[in-house]
Amino acid sequence: MRCGAMPASLKSMRVIGIDCGSRVTGYGVIDSDGHRHTLVVCGAIVPPRGGDLATRLQAIHTGISALLVQYQPQCAAVEDIFFAENVRSAIKLGHARGVVLQALAAGGVAIAEYTPLAIKSALTGYGRAEKEQVAQMVKTLLRLDAPPKPLDATDALAAAICHLHTQSPG
């Protein structure tokens, strides 16, 4: 299921942004009326250290599934895989993305995927922006006192904001 534009009949949309990782998976939930975005919750799923990959993937799946039940997003914006020099890390990231996408699909949540370049461009106007610039834009757009922590949560919120900014009106 793919995310679309905010239907005209909806007064608001709830989007969950997800920054996948096998060691830390960031998440952020935003409500938007199409003009103004409000932070609902953000944080990170951190599987037990030292656990094998299967155990970490199960923790990610369980965490995402619980967030879907608790916050009921209509759509998910997931950061796409970026180029990685370390093949082993890229494969683990692919596994993490797989369990996230499966949890979203099982939860009936529409999915949009964005590259890091697209996310940075949507927030800052520049696809090669530094992480600090993206964090400042997230802070500004959500009217927060400080950029959200941890950084993985900030990246997830950036993905959600990217989705909201790139959708055409219903």
CATH superfamily membership:
Ribonuclease H-like superfamily/Ribonuclease H
CATH class: Alpha Beta
**Coarse shape:** globular
Integer tally of domains? 1
CATH-defined architecture: 2-Layer Sandwich
Overall description:
This protein is of the alpha/beta class and 170 residues long. The chain has one domain: Nucleotidyltransferase, domain 5 (2-Layer Sandwich), CATH 3.30.420. Helices cover 44% and strands 20% of the residues. The protein contains 5 helices and 5 strands; from the N terminus they run βββαβαβααα. The chain has a 5-stranded mixed sheet. Helix 2 links the parallel strand 4 and strand 5. Helix 1 packs parallel to helix 2, helix 3 (116-124) packs across helix 5 (151-166) and helix 4 crosses helix 5. It is globular. The chain starts with 12 loop residues before the first strand and ends with a helix. The relative contact order is 0.24.
